[in-house]
Amino acid sequence: MHDIRWIRENPDAFDRGLARRGLEAMSAQVLTVDADARAVTTELQELQTRRKEASKQIGMLKGKGEDADDLIAEVADIKFRMTALEDRQKESTGSIRALLEGVANIPADDTPDGKDEDDNVEVRIVGDKPSFDFDAQDHVDVGERLGLLDFESASKLSGSRFVVTRGALARMERALASLMLDLHTDEFGYTEVNPPLLVRDEAAYGTGQLPKFEEDLFRTTTDHWLIPTAEVPLTNLVAGDILEQSELPIRFTAHTPCFRSEAGAAGKDTRGMLRQHQFTKVEMVSICQPDASAEEHERMTGCAEEVLKRLGLHYRVVVLATGDLGFSACKTYDIEVWLPGQDRYREISSCSNCGDFQARRMNARFRPEDRKGTEFVHTLNGSGLAVGRTLIAVIENYQQADGSIRVPDALRPYMGGLETIQASDAA
Fold it and tell me: What CATH number does the domain containing 60 carry?
């Protein structure tokens, strides 16, 4: 959500920020509605003052035994006018909210301009691409030949964009999540949380999924929403709170299933596990004071990168251009892992600084130690990592000529010392 006071003082900057996202200017429209709301508020305050004065005068006249009928009629008229103005005020405030709640966050100054993902800027490349003395296969071919990835059974159960993992690959998926959680909690200071997978409207609204992206979510018959990412419940843990500055930063991590309708992704990545309706992810969320969020963003991205380093996977980091930036983010780093089966980089983590955008929607604040009052916190979120996509990366990067998969050293303690996954490991 945007700060209406900032828009009043910086209408041109607001419009420039929208233009960087390819959106039309809105300041004039917003400020017109805002001016009406402020005029109504002023008139209400004046009427309230007059009502108090008239009521006091009525008491004085009655105390003297004098006629107060005219003043009584005036107070009744004021009450009637105030009721109408309060309805108008509520309507104007609702109109401003409706206008602003669907407007994406303003990009940070150091977010590069661009129309789409082709304009994303490469920040760094880490590690070397693997080399094979055979034709590398994608995860679907490797997994199905081993009998450990079963898309046919998943389709029978649930339709398209689902998968059944079996045996050693199911264990590897669990091992990957455990490795990630251990890193984030033991080494990086995140607190592990096991949050609800069903949330109410207010939570989905707070992080920006509602109302704009309702079609991307799954809704239950009880009017709950299945979480598209643990960002939603983790960030909303501070909704409505006033925190002490000494409590910040707060860092949460969780391993949860995620559910997405993929309504806007028809026809994209239909093969394999890359884009599914249900997948698991280890999420990181940080709550911090405003002047620390840029540094926290770099730190969070580094935490996600460390998982790939421990697994020995080649990847690159890009900063998203304005045209590829998510709704709530002001700056985002994507980490893209190399998939030899596709001969390309694919996103495996997205780490975003949302500034105070989500905090305003959630009314999450803190008390600064050096001044009075409260300020909105800054919120950040990132994948640390998408577990299913990490499984894909391990399958494709660690495949061997005989069709088996070598288990990365970092995962072996989580897999009972298993060094190689073979077809016999399907049972």
Answer: 1.10.287.40
Vertex 147 angle, CA 145 and 153, to 5°: 115
Domain with 396 in it: 117-426
- The catalytic position among 262, 347, 367, 375 is 347
Q: Is residue 361 part of a domain?
A: yes
Residue-wise pLDDT for 370-396, tens only, equals 999 999 999 999 999 999 999 999 999
| Non-local CB neighbours of 317 within 8 Å, separated by 6+ positions | 122, 123, 124, 126, 301, 305, 333, 334, 335, 336
Catalytic residue among 27, 328, 349, 350: 350
pLDDT surpassing 70 at residue 264: no
Q: Give the pLDDT band (50/70/90) at residue 63.
A: confident
Q: pTM score, two decimals?
A: 0.92
Residue with tokens 């400020």: 31
The percent of residues above 90 in pLDDT, for the chain, comes to 83
Same structural domain, 41 and 124: no
Question: Does residue 225 sit in the same domain as residue 373?
Answer: yes
The answer to whether position 63 is within a domain reads yes
End residue of a domain, out of 68, 101, 134: 101
Residue at which a domain ends, from 73, 101, 129: 101
Does 260 qualify as catalytic in the annotation?
Answer: yes
The angle that helices 387-397 and 293-311 make with each other, rounded to 10 degrees, is 40
Active-site residue flag, 261 = no
Q: What is residue 425's predicted lDDT score, i.e. its pLDDT?
A: 61
389 as an active site residue: the answer is yes
Residue 310 domain-assigned? yes
Considering the domain architecture, whether residues 87 and 172 belong to the same structural domain is answered as: no
Which of 171, 251, 260, 299 does the annotation list as catalytic?
260
Does the annotation mark 286 as catalytic?
Answer: no
For the question of residue 360 being annotated catalytic, the response is no
- Does residue 111 lie in a domain region? no
Q: What is the pLDDT of residues 319-374, one digit of tens each?
A: 999 999 999 999 999 999 999 999 999 999 999 999 999 999 999 999 999 999 99
Residue 71 predicted with pLDDT over 90: no
From the centroid of its chain, how far is CA 347? 16
Domain count within the chain? 2
What is the distance of C-alpha 27 from the center of its chain? 25
Catalytic residue, chosen from 174, 275, 346, 367, is 275
DSSP code for 138: P
Looking at the fold, whether 247 and 338 belong to one and the same domain comes out as: yes
